[in-house]
Amino acid sequence: MLPKSSLIMKLAIVIVSDPKSGSEEAAGRVFNALALAQESLQHGDEVDITFIGAGTRWPAELTKISHPFNALYNSVRPAVRAASCGCAAAFGATEGVEACGVPLAKENPVAGTTGLLSIRHYLVEGWQTLVF
Questions:
Q1: What mean pLDDT, rounded, does the chain reach?
Q2: Which of 45, 54, 46, 132 is nearest to 86 (CA)?
Q3: What percent of the chain has pLDDT over 70?
Q4: N or C: which end of the chain has fewer CB within 10 A?
Q5: Model confidence, pTM
Q6: Could you write out the DSSP letters of every residue in 71-124?
Q7: C-alpha distances in Å from residue 61, one per residue of 24, 95, 124
Q8: So where are the chain's domains?
């Protein structure tokens, strides 16, 4: 375990990569997002992990015991805040997100959608916000 820093960071990790793309890049993005979340949590940082766009497909994949990143995902699962409701609907991921117990967020009322997860509040509140 890494030593805790005396400085605490507020870190928002936004996952947009698409597991259905089958690319190593998409897998590399989610792996690095989860690894950063784990490192930050070990340092005592406040961490929120969110899924938007095609990234809303990730929770259903990561909760599969056979997935190579399952243990890493489970280690940071308490930091998973939500998946975007409207994005999950648009990308056919609503059922998978709900089955995993990840809340659907819809704070951002966007016309023609059921509402999207708000990223703006992280920026307004001064969170370090990284998109993977």
A1: 95
A2: 54
A3: 95
A4: N
A5: 0.93
A6: HHHHHHGGGEEEEEHHHHHHTT-HHHHHHTTPPEE--B--TTSS-B--SHHHHH
A7: 15, 12, 31
A8: 10-131
Q: Which amino acid is at 1?
A: M
Residue 42 is predicted with a pLDDT of: 96
User: How far, in Å, CA of 69 to CA of 29, rounded?
Assistant: 12
For every residue of 27-80, DSSP letters joined together read: HHHHHHHHHHHHHHHHTT-EEEEEE-GGGGGHHHHHTSTTSTTHHHHHHHGGGE
Side-by-side strand order, sheet with 10-15? 104-105, 80-84, 46-51, 10-15, 128-131
Which tokens belong to 31?
């792996």
Section 41-64 average pLDDT:
98
pLDDT at 127 over 70: yes
CATH of domain 10-131: 3.40.1260.10
SS3 27: helix
Contact (Cβ atoms closer than 8 angstroms) between residue 56 and residue 93: yes
DSSP code for 132 = -
Asked if the model's pLDDT at residue 100 lies above 90, the reply is yes
Q: What is the pLDDT of residue 60?
A: 98
